[in-house]
Amino acid sequence: MKEGPSSGTMEDEDLLKDFQVGERSYKYYDVTQIQGYEELPYSLRVLLECAVRKRSETQGQVWKDVYERILSVLSGCEEDSEEDDDILFHPGRVLLQDFTGVPALIDLAAIRESVSKSGGCPDVVDSLCPADLVVDHCVQVDYNQIKQQLSSPPDPSPKTPVLGGSMQPCPTVIVHSTFPPPFLAYPPPPPIYTLPAFYPISSYQSKVVAPSPASNTSNRSVPPMDNPGLPIQDDICPFHQKMSYWADALRSNQTSEFERNKERFIFLKWVNSAFKNITVIPPGTGVMHQVNLEYLARVVTCQGGVLFPDSVVGTDTHTTMINGLGVLGWGVGTLDAQAVMFGHPVTLSFPRVVGIRIKGVISDYSTSTDLVLMITKKLRQAGVQGAFVEFFGPSLKELSVADRATISNMCPEYGALVGFFPIDEITIQYLAQSGRDKSHIETVEKYMKTVKMFRSSDENENIRFASIIEIDLSDIIPCVSGPKRTKDKVSINEIAADFKSALHLKEGPKGYGLSQGQGHVAFSVNIDGEYFTVGHGTVLLAAISSCTNTSNPSVMLGAGLLAKKAVECGLSVPKVVKTSLAPGSGVVTSYLQESGVMPYLYMLGFEIVGYGCSTCSYNSGPNLPDSIVQAIKQGNLVCCGLLSGNRNFEGRLDPDIRANYLASPLMVIAYAIAGRIDINLDREPLGFNSHTGEAIFLKNIWPSRQEIQEIERKLVIPGIYRQVYSKVSVGNKHWDSLSVPNSVDKFPWSSDSTYIKCPEYIKEIGSNARNWKNMRCLLKLGDNITSDHISPAGSITRSSPAAEYLSSLGLAPREYNSYGARRGNYHVMVRGTFSNMRLQNHLLNKVGPYTLHLPSEVTTTIFEASERYKNDGVSLFAIGGKNFGRGTSRDWATRGPFLLGVRAILAVSFDPTYRSNLVKTGILPLQITSISYESLKGTECLSIDIRDNITPKCLIDVVVGKAERSFKAVVRVDNDYETDVFHAGGVIAQIVSKTKDKTTCETA
């Protein structure tokens, strides 16, 4: 092992150099002069550049420590590091989605209002880091298939359905249905028009085509030829200008989306106009990760005249998708994102970097979906939890940026923090393809090559990885993943046998526990006069959705071509299958229209329902028809759903669909046509030509890679991206119709609102008043307390304090909604803290959100007890066991306890992210021994000997009662940065303190 370099060999001012691109002049830090730099993985080079830049800007010891820690990789010192060896990183951007972003922006609006009321300049309150919020998590599939009245009465006689293969004989039970609107009769396939493989891009400039009279009649079985190569009208997509027949469901879903979320959208539109450094991307634009990839990502950014690599943290786990573009990024909790907006760094455990060497060539029948499922399985087996995964090797050139982004998107599923693809020629080609400015692309390429963050495919890679895993693309075979876990990858040749085996396996991660006698049950259900067989393995839902695949032109165009060939072969999708298409952005719609495949997707039922997460994030819309649900329950049926997404937990697609499979968009369509999962696609036909009776196999309609690549080359061009994203700031008619106030100082909070409230707690937090004497215990908890125990995200139960509050406002139980939906109303969230019905508080023998108030010894709710303590001026603490606060990071998991009056948490050990969030909130994390934990009953008063000069991880005394005894505790404020934040009272208190004295905008 080579000896590591010394940090003192080069001063930061010596690294700051001039940089010229054409007539533009910049500065940059020449990190290539650091000894051993070229042996660092590319992902660590990004962290090192940040440490050098911040060390120069702040002269802070903490950044010097980060610098030293990164370079220790070259000396092998990282092998001796501690498990909790944390470093800091300052991302260049923040990416928010609407559900998690709204609470952070509400805080910002309240701080601005507070500063304005105190005579300060409201403009000083803004995001100190560029922040983008993409409204994408509220799309729900209420409408998914074309609605029409039957032209003739339905034939009541049973028909034998064609589901692509034989089923077991049906029992004589017939379940009749009253069908809900989303499942109204689907028209017969329209006549096949001969459409060109693609439309010339000049068709973008053609005149608006008036809708055909046929589009205004109730008989819509034959679609008008309104030039399907044209983008659709902005009625239904915020970017497109032309009328289209294909967007009936999309129009209806967007109308519903705005009706449901009008209150939140008005607030977000005000934010967009009030804050200079925050951009709100209107609803209907697309999934946040795909918009980030196609439009928002800078790759190289500039602040204060200094160039540096773009990087991002986002409030969604799949923010990792951007690593496919060579931009370092990962998901964080709302509190961390908010802290970055206030100018704070993020904390992360120093990552080991695992190299993934890519070799071989992918086969024609395999897609990036198959690739990512194989990589997910292989990396799960290898164990890369929390690591940086970095891809290299001779076959990296085989993967487009869309392929890479698909792989990076699945990072949370294989456990890594990031899946990083260094920038190379393919990245530069994508930037040009996606319509980025030529001068910016020139800057990106020159800068990245200068700082040696540009990977050359023919260079000798002598990089020090912690370990290397090899993946051969030629080993990849078409597969799906399921039926319950993403890691359970199954070849399409084996899926039929695998599913049948799963039916009879013991109920658990793979099995359903059915007896042999239960495995051959099927029912005939009446769907508007037609009878369909529903049994084990019947496909009831097929959704092309989410950022995982819809960002990838090759698989989306491939799906369209497969649909075209299927329709031409006389195939259709059974009416029992609920189908939908939710593109990640308007760009997808453009090239599907331009290629001429959109009509064929429509004919198979894959109509565009919206731009957002939809089915991928539990928003598949209304449940299955009653007739199907009754059949499922009566026969204990295991029916299936197909999703081109990244998560397949049981019940995620629909509560009555038990088997959920992840597949490529092409396979989603194929299985939808087959109508069942237990089919061998090599040996059994998908179905039969409706005109000739000929058996049609998958191989008959599967498009070749050459076909797909040719269309992609001609259609996915810069003009489409520029056309689409030039209209982001314009929005659509729904967004434009929202009326917002002109004042940027104050948002007009509605007293009638139950979803968004002005957070009056900002004043309480900003006061930084903490009393460490004679503190009372609010609750004592055990081991492995999760963020969901602390701040539930599920439904609000009728007997909870939150329900009592909502009921007092006149809401009925059906209107309570969930804690997640009401994150913008702090009255609900503080009452919901520790309200998990399975919570076990060791202060009393009662499960649920209850505690013992002391000294009165009255059993009451945790919220009511906290109110009594607050009125008496008593500060509170909580006691926990091992791994306190584990699970998904939630801002209210620390903010909630703070607002209940908790100022310290004593635990045997903390989840690292939760511990960091406690500090950012202003709560003191104290680590105690197991002996101290057992000795504390929760009935004692504690006094904590906390002082202004505490140092990271110092020992302090905790005094019990009136000095009867004391014990030692470790202050888990782990570095100088956290020490400053804690002394300020937390991140929000710190920003309030910094802004309250700035009385004029000039002094800001």
TrEMBL record:
It comes from the Eukaryota. InterPro entries: Acnase/IPM_dHydase_lsu_aba_1/3 (IPR015931), Acoase/IPM_deHydtase_lsu_aba (IPR001030), Aconitase/3IPM_dehydase_swvl (IPR015928), Aconitase/IRP2 (IPR006249), Aconitase_4Fe-4S_dom (IPR036008), AconitaseA/IPMdHydase_ssu_swvl (IPR000573). Residues 82-147, 247-675 form the Aconitase/3-isopropylmalate dehydratase large subunit alpha/beta/alpha domain. Pfam families: Aconitase, Aconitase_C. SUPFAM superfamilies: Aconitase iron-sulfur domain, LeuD/IlvD-like. GO terms for molecular function: 4 iron, 4 sulfur cluster binding; metal ion binding. NCBIfam families: aconitase_1, PRK09277.1. Belongs to the aconitase/IPM isomerase family. PANTHER family: ACONITASE/IRON-RESPONSIVE ELEMENT FAMILY MEMBER (PTHR11670). This is IRP1B. It comes from Lepeophtheirus salmonis.
